[in-house]
Amino acid sequence: xxxxxxxxACSETYNNSNPGNCGVNCNNGMNCVGRCDFEDxxxxxxxxxxxxxxxxxxxxxxxxxxxxxxxxRRYSENVLSVENNIDFNQYSRYNILSIxxxxxxxxxxxxxxxxxxxxxxxxxxxxxxxxxxxxxxxxYAQKTDNIEVSLNRCDIFEVLAKNKPTCHSYNIVxxxxxxxxxxxxxxxxxxxxxRENSRSTAKADSLICCLPQPIPTVHKISLWICA
Length: 227
Description:
This protein has about 230 residues and is of the alpha/beta class. The protein has helices at about 1-15, 40-45, 60-80, 105-115, 130-140, 155-160, 180-185; strands at about 95-100, 120-125, 145-150, 170-175, 190, 210, 225.
């Protein structure tokens, strides 16, 4: 399974990295305590930014390895939790668009629930540092018969702005922590909660991010997941 191979590879890389501060090239030198998952370490800084200062994003290769090996299982289980409310048997195959895909914990989740069904997974993340981990995911997909991936290290909003049609019709869209990141970094502009008597199929307490215009590259979406 992808989750086992990727977590093991990232754990090995992280554990074999130099202890202490990441070195003279560390872009968080004043706040880096070396072990990324220590209290008030770089992971805490990203997750609790700006309250804890320091980093606001995963701008370190070592930090990404720590993040994947520590949180991938937990976050993939969060995605799998929707299985209690959705009949996945209705999907003959999974065509997934993942926004803010990172290390693809949603792909890990859907690999488990697909039970051999074909999966097409297209992920977007603007963080260029995911390259090495994305190459591991691509290598895994190449040797796995039912999984095809396209991983893009670019801004999804810049892609949408080009207004070009997609080659695939997605039936599952996953938004991975994009909303919370935009809120934390003061980049989000408009959020609304649906009313109880709204026609929206979302639950009354769910969070909806309103885009300024329709998304032309997404068709026939039957499932949105905000992880």
